[in-house]
Write a structure and sequence with these properties.
It is a single chain. The protein is mainly alpha-helical and about 160 residues long. Helices cover about 70% and strands about 10% of the residues. It contains seven helices and three strands. It has helices spanning about 5-25, 30-35, 40-55, 60-65, 70-80, 105-125, 130-155; strands spanning about 55-60, 85-90, 95-100. It has a three-stranded antiparallel beta sheet. A hairpin with a 2-residue loop joins strand 2 (about 85-90) and strand 3. Helix 3 (about 40-55) packs across helix 5 and helix 4 packs across helix 5. The radius of gyration is 19 Å and the shape is globular. The mean pLDDT is about 85.
């Protein structure tokens, strides 16, 4: 029989599980996955991820999504552009607006990272039944929906 817990107890357990799972998954990450970042900092990796997810985003949109100042976003993009991972383009309708997209090298890096990440996740997911995977997906999708709602309310 399940014991009823308070919301605070649930929050503590969820935080603990997220942290424990993340640490454990990182600990068994194959060495080749640790090296694919081409010496990117965490901030540069996040920047690359946002550009990949929001192709043709503006510098303002990027800085907002990263939660950094526009000047910090510009510095990150400059480093990624010098590395050949991101390209800047002037908006055809407004030359003052700079749009970002992955350069071919950045696209290849991102695709390789996704492939290796998925292979790594399969180490764990293959040990779950189909029903367990579906339950986990449902719970994560519900949590994501709530997170998105909260983010929209914060705007």
């Amino acid at each position: 029989m399940a014991v009823a817990r308070t919301r605070d107890e649930d929050a503590e357990r969820i935080a603990e599980l997220f942290s424990r799972i993340a640490r454990a998954m990182w600990a068994v990450k194959p060495p080749k996955m640790k090296s694919i970042a081409f010496d990117l900092t965490l901030a540069q990796g996040r920047c690359l991820w946002v550009v990949a997810q929001s192709e043709h985003c503006t510098m303002r949109e990027l800085s907002k999504q990263l939660g950094v100042s526009p000047s910090t976003a510009c510095e990150l993009v400059e480093r990624l552009a010098r590395a050949g991972l991101v390209q800047r383009e002037n908006d055809p309708n407004d030359r003052r607006i700079v749009r970002l997209r992955l350069a071919p090298k950045g696209r290849r890096l991102f695709a390789k990272h996704k492939q290796e990440r998925n292979e790594h996740l399969r180490l764990f997911l293959d040990r779950l039944t189909g029903e367990q995977r579906q339950m986990m997906l449902g719970a994560l999708e519900a949590l994501n929906d709530v997170v998105q709602q909260v983010m929209q309310e914060k705007k």
